[in-house]
Specification:
With 391 residues, the chain is an alpha+beta fold. The chain folds into two domains: 145 residues, no CATH class; 175 residues, Phosphatidylinositol 3-kinase Catalytic Subunit, Chain A, Domain 5 (Orthogonal Bundle), CATH 1.10.1070.20. It is 32% helix and 15% strand. It has 13 helices and eleven strands. The strands form four sheets. A four-stranded antiparallel β-sheet has the order 3-4-6-5. Helix 5 packs antiparallel against helix 11 and helix 11 packs antiparallel against helix 13.
Length: 391
């Protein structure tokens, strides 16, 4: 289902979480973009890949505790708990003979019991799992880190933890949103909080009933890229053809921010577009989000600076690219005023210091992280003076 539009009928196996066969396509225009190939609007294999990707991965931090408390054998079992509903899009599944309507199940319209999933995700508390906890958008939260959806003032807010060693990723999310706003980029706005004695980031949902997310990978899979054209250029052309005129600027913004943050994990599912599910029109690029894996957040204190400078980026089909090569893909570096970032390293250091009582990171590490960020800001200003350049 796509809201109340029936998309297809299929035989589904709840044990394997797979569609065994598609018996009838009802509305081909509403088939999920990730469920097809470059030559076919629907592929059973790709439909199952798209569906399984909705579930919690087996590498989620704290998964063993979740298994014990909730009682599932595989995290994908939670896809069966509440119609595989997500807040990233408005797709869902229901039995053929069900009379349920979208307005009866939507997380955008109805409150849900958040306590169970939130507690089991972020703490070791022993709780009794209740049936009402199963109705929760956490069932379809992908990704490595601890995370949960909570409800605040009628908004859906995602809280997300960091790695146990230094807990820097939430602060990096805040930093990336600060830098992006200063530079005039469309970025997701993040705050930093303490939850269950852990540093977490928090951000409001970028989706609603009129806007759903489609990842770059699903877009790139949907149409062939002309021979000799890079995935970068092909992606921009697809978006421009669909009416997103600032597509090139959006990718430039992402490149610049990832360079400044030394982001190592810009994979093809953490950027993309927002689509109107009623008109199927691609409306805009998704504001930049998920930029926490940067600034040497996994390195030991003594290696922060050197390992940060030698870290690799991801960019479309290239999964290992040094950051100097990444910034060379920016088509207009002159569009940015980097002088507005002069005080940002100090603000970053203060934010890290404010988290020390919980994160336990050292003063030396904070100093090295500040030095690393200062280097990136100065480096990009020097590169701007040479633009257009060849590296």
């Amino acid at each position: 289902m796509h809201k109340d539009i029936p998309v297809l009928k299929a035989d589904y196996d709840p044990d394997s979480h797979l569609f065994l066969n598609v018996t009838k396509v009802l509305n081909p225009a509403h088939i999920p973009p990730g469920a097809g190939t470059k030559v076919s609007v629907l592929s059973l294999k790709q439909l199952n890949i798209w569906y399984l990707r909705r579930g919690i991965p087996t590498y989620r931090v704290g998964l063993d505790h979740m298994k014990t408390v909730i009682g599932f054998s595989h995290p994908r079992d939670l896809l069966n708990a509440d119609h595989a509903l997500s807040v990233s899009d408005v797709y869902w599944v229901k039995p053929e003979d069900s009379s349920l309507r979208w307005k009866e199940v939507s997380y955008f319209r109805h409150p849900f019991e958040e306590e169970g999933f939130r507690t089991v995700s972020f703490s070791r508390k022993k709780i009794v799992w209740k049936k009402e906890y199963e109705r929760c958008p956490g069932n379809t939260l992908n990704g490595y880190h601890r995370k949960a959806w909570v409800q605040r003032n009628q908004d859906l807010v995602l809280i997300k933890g960091g790695s146990a060693s230094y807990q820097e990723e939430p602060v990096n999310e805040w930093l990336a949103s600060l830098i992006g706003k200063r530079l005039g980029m469309e970025v997701c706005s993040y705050d930093v909080e303490v939850f269950e004695n852990q540093i977490v980031s928090s951000c409001r949902s970028m989706t609603d009933e009129k806007h759903e997310m489609i990842g770059a990978w699903d877009i790139l899979k949907s149409k062939p890229i002309p021979a000799g054209m890079s995935w970068h250029r092909g992606y921009v052309c697809m978006l421009e053809k669909a009416g997103i005129r600032n597509a090139s600027k959006c990718v430039d913004d992402m490149i610049v921010l990832d360079y400044l943050m030394l982001n190592s994990d810009r994979h093809l599912n953490n950027f993309g577009v927002l689509r109107n599910p009623d008109t199927l029109q691609l409306e805009s690029c998704i504001p930049i989000f998920d930029t926490g894996s940067g600034l040497a957040c996994f390195s030991i204190d003594e290696e922060v600076y050197e390992e940060g400078l030698s870290s690799n980026a991801k960019f479309f089909e290239t999964t290992r690219m040094n950051h100097d090569a990444l910034i060379s893909r920016c088509r207009n570096l002159l569009a940015y005023d980097f002088s507005v970032l002069e005080d940002v390293p100090d603000l970053y250091a203060r934010k890290l210091s404010s988290c020390q009582a919980v994160s336990g990171i050292s003063d030396f590490r904070i100093s090295e992280l500040k030095r690393l960020l200062m280097h990136q800001i100065e480096a990009i200003r020097m590169l701007q003076n040479r633009f257009p350049f060849e590296l």
